[in-house]
Amino acid sequence: MSTLIKNARVLDAEQLTTKDILIEDGKIKAIGHDLNQQYGAADHVICAADRFVTPGLVDVHVHLRDPGLTEKETIETGTLAAAHGGFTTIGAMPNVDPVPDTPAKIALMVAENAAKAHVHVAQYASITTNRQGDELVDFEGVKQAGAFAVSNDGSGVQTAGTMYRAMCGAAKAGLTLAAHVEDDSLTMGGVMNAGPVADKLGLPGIMGISESSQIARDVLLAEASGVHYHVCHVSTAESVRVIRDAKRAGINVTCEVSPHHLLLTDADITLDNPMLKMNPPLRSPKDRAALIAGLLDGTIDMIATDHAPHTDAQKSGSMKTAAFGITGLETAFATLYTALVKTRLLTLSQLIDLMSTKPAQLFDLDQAGRLAPGMPADLAIIDLDHEYEIKAATMLSKGHNSPFIGWHVYGNVLMTLVDGQVVYGKD
Ligand SMILES: NC(=O)N[C@@H](CC(=O)O)C(=O)O
Ligand SMILES: [Zn+2]
Ligand SMILES: [Zn+2]
Prior knowledge:
Radius of gyration: 21 Å
InterPro entries: DHOase, DHOase/Allantoinase_Hydrolase, DHOase_cat, Dihydroorotase_CS, Metal-dep_hydrolase_composite, Metal_Hydrolase
Number of strands: 20
Organism: Lactiplantibacillus brownii
Number of helices: 13
EC number: 3.5.2.3
Distance between the termini: 21 Å
Strand content: 15-25%
Bound molecules: N-carbamoyl-L-aspartate, zinc ion
Cofactor: Zn(2+)
Family: Belongs to the metallo-dependent hydrolases superfamily. DHOase family. Class I DHOase subfamily.
């Protein structure tokens, strides 16, 4: 089976050029001109009509909610949402029920993902039993069973001793440790960023030091243990500074930032609105500026959505009681392309690096992140030229908890292919 994508605009040495892409048996066979002369006619032709074709996007931070929380999302709906957003590989976080904290549970989840997912799913195991306390997971065992990394996302690892032992174990097993950094003794029941906006709204605040102080602890533990330490969803200027300094010291640390922390701040919270409640919270404009500076100087390695679907009921009422988290898979590319690339803060090539090439490289997902002969045909065809409105009605995720609904953006994903098969497509 062969497919020819005609007239694709692809990035080549940071410039967009028009080429054809030939796919054979799920892999990219060739990228170039007049491919039918060399390889003969393809079984199928997709006319890209000068639309942008990107290597499939890679998101290392997604909540699929399956098993156990399937009223919010399932493997099917979450990975359809990923395909709709142009993502072809996602990392699934372990805050599900039961928590994948044994080799047997990981093996089961890996099998379920393979049977039900529309895109490639890399599965996280937890760091500790049931994502809490101090008993470590069998890292060698979960790696053998198919876990690609470990994380307690949703909660921080509270004690240095447990984190250090976890890092030593993960390093020995060759697993990246991805940390949700949050010191519970500094969180104090907050629901949004601590500061003048929270004070004005009368809402309890979450201090930035609950995040940054744990990163400061962890980079030193990472240095001592030799683990690849990855920081999830950095949100403050101090976090960026600590990570920048750690990188300069040669420590093996990487980090991600979410689209919402790049696009919004607590100044956008003008009333008690659960759609703007997530963990970590939207920070100050000064923090947002530091995140963008961190992206530009390479301190921040990648963008990850932290797609966190919840039911309408769980996201209604007051920020004091609503669930933390917003969806992201179906809005990430378009919102970032519109706000950062069209305004020339980033080039398109830099955005694709941050959303595909670098997450694939840094998480050893060596079958993702590049459009090149021999690679799996994982790609998305995107219309960069026509403005559209983000609407809840077009979302394939079960969760409609997005603050970006109603935004007018560019960068509509028209079609997504995984292993050469169309997993999302509009005519
Ligand atoms: N980000 C969130 O606000 N919520 C996430 C958990 C997490 O990423 O920490 C969730 O699972 O809902
Ligand atoms: Zn988290
Ligand atoms: Zn998360």
